[in-house]
Design brief:
Blueprint: E1 11-16, H1 26-34, E2 38-39, E3 42-47, H2 53-56, E4 62-69, E5 78-82, H3 91-94, H4 102-112, E6 118-125, H5 137-154, H6 157-160, E7 163-165
Parallel strand pairs: 1-3, 1-4, 4-6
Antiparallel strand pairs: 2-7, 5-6
Helix pairs in contact: 1-5
C-alpha cells in the first residue's frame, strides 16, 4: 500500500476452504478463531475460491493464506511455504477458469500485478473431509498458533500490541 502508515492494514490473512467440508474448513476456522486477537495491521477474511485471491490481495505487503493440505505428513503438520516464481505452475493452469488451486491463483495475481511482496502459505495437514462436519478443533488450534507465531515474526512489537479487528470477513 503506497503511503500507508504503520497503523494501516498491510497484512492480509485469508482462510481458504469450505467450512462445511470437514477439515477443508481449517483456513476459515483459523480466521474465525483469531478474529478478536488480530492487530490493526491485519485484515482477515475467508474465501472458498482461491481464484478470488488474484484481485483481492491487491495493496497488501504480506499475504498469509491458511489452507488444508493432504499427503505431506500426519494431521496437524504445518507447512510454511513462501510463494515465489519457482512455485508458479505451468502457464496452462495459470489462466484457466477451471484451475482454482492456490498456487495458480497466486500466479495469476503475479501476472496481474496484485500479488503482495511477501505471499506466505500455511498449509495444515488435514484428515477428515466429511461433508457437514466442522474442521477438527485440534487442527484449528495448531493452525492458529502457526499464524500467531508468523505474525510475531513479521511485525514489530509496537505494531502487535493492539488488537482491534473483530470480524473474520472484514475487508478493506
Amino acid at each position: 500500500m503506497s503511503g500507508a502508515s504503520a497503523a494501516d492494514p498491510w497484512i492480509a490473512l485469508v482462510g481458504v476452504g469450505n467450512p462445511a467440508q470437514g477439515d477443508d474448513g481449517i483456513g476459515p476456522a483459523v480466521v474465525a478463531a483469531l478474529a478478536d486477537r488480530l492487530p490493526s495491521a491485519v485484515v482477515a477474511w475467508t474465501t472458498r475460491s482461491a481464484l478470488d485471491l488474484a484481485t483481492d490481495l491487491e495493496g497488501y505487503t504480506v499475504a498469509i493464506l491458511v489452507d488444508a493440505a493432504v499427503g505431506g505428513g500426519p494431521p496437524g503438520t504445518v507447512h510454511r511455504l513462501a510463494f515465489g516464481r519457482d512455485t508458479i505452475p505451468p502457464d496452462g493452469g495459470v489462466l484457466s477458469s477451471h484451475e482454482t488451486g492456490l498456487l495458480a491463483a497466486l500466479a495469476l495475481a503475479d501476472r496481474l500485478g496484485t500479488l503482495p511482496k511477501t505471499p506466505l502459505i500455511l498449509a495444515v495437514e488435514a484428515a477428515d473431509f466429511t461433508a457437514g462436519t466442522p474442521a477438527a478443533r485440534d487442527l484449528v488450534t495448531v493452525g492458529s498458533h502457526a499464524v500467531l507465531d508468523l505474525l510475531a515474526a513479521l511485525m514489530p512489537a509496537a505494531t502487535r500490541s493492539t488488537c482491534v479487528r473483530t470480524g473474520s470477513s472484514e475487508r478493506r
